[in-house]
Design a protein that fits this description.
Layout: E1 3-8, E2 10-13, E3 18-25, E4 32-39, E5 46-52, E6 58-60, E7 68-73, E8 78-83, E9 92-100, H1 107-111, E10 119-120, E11 124-129
Parallel strand pairs: 2-11
Antiparallel strand pairs: 1-3, 3-8, 4-5, 4-9, 5-6, 7-8, 9-10, 9-11
């Protein structure tokens, strides 16, 4: 059974940093797009950062550009989201997700369509207080 196991998250004050990690198991790591989505109460799920594992293209949402970074560790089959300069607006449940992607698939073309991702992690809460 394919699984995505998330770790990290928690509560910080404005300006603080957190790191989320997502480990894939029972899954061919190659041939996938993996990324992070978030959902705040009363809002739709939105793409935060996505990476094409093979092609290397990345997508970072405008709302977090310059503050968040997505990276991958091929050997460990993990994708991480480093979140710096956190703001209260970043408060949400964060989910790791994966879907099959060809190497040429631009990460930006799938990041705005969370419904196209069919493998999801368990979610982790990120809370930023002012």
């Amino acid at each position: 059974q394919v699984r995505l196991l998330q770790s990290g998250g928690g509560s910080v004050q404005t300006g603080g940093s957190l790191r989320l990690s997502c480990a894939a198991s029972n899954m061919f790591y190659s041939g996938y797009c993996m990324g992070w989505f978030r959902q705040a109460p009363g809002k739709e799920r939105e793409g935060v950062a996505v990476i094409n594992i093979d092609g290397g293209s990345t997508y970072i949402a405008d709302s977090v550009k310059g503050r968040f970074t997505i990276s991958q560790d091929t050997a460990e089959k993990t994708v991480a989201l480093q979140m710096n300069s956190l703001k209260p607006d970043d408060t949400a449940m964060y989910y790791c997700a994966a879907r099959v992607c060809t190497w040429s698939k631009e990460a930006s073309s799938v990041a705005t369509n969370p419904g196209s991702f069919n493998i999801w992690g368990q979610g982790t809460q990120v809370t930023v207080s002012s």
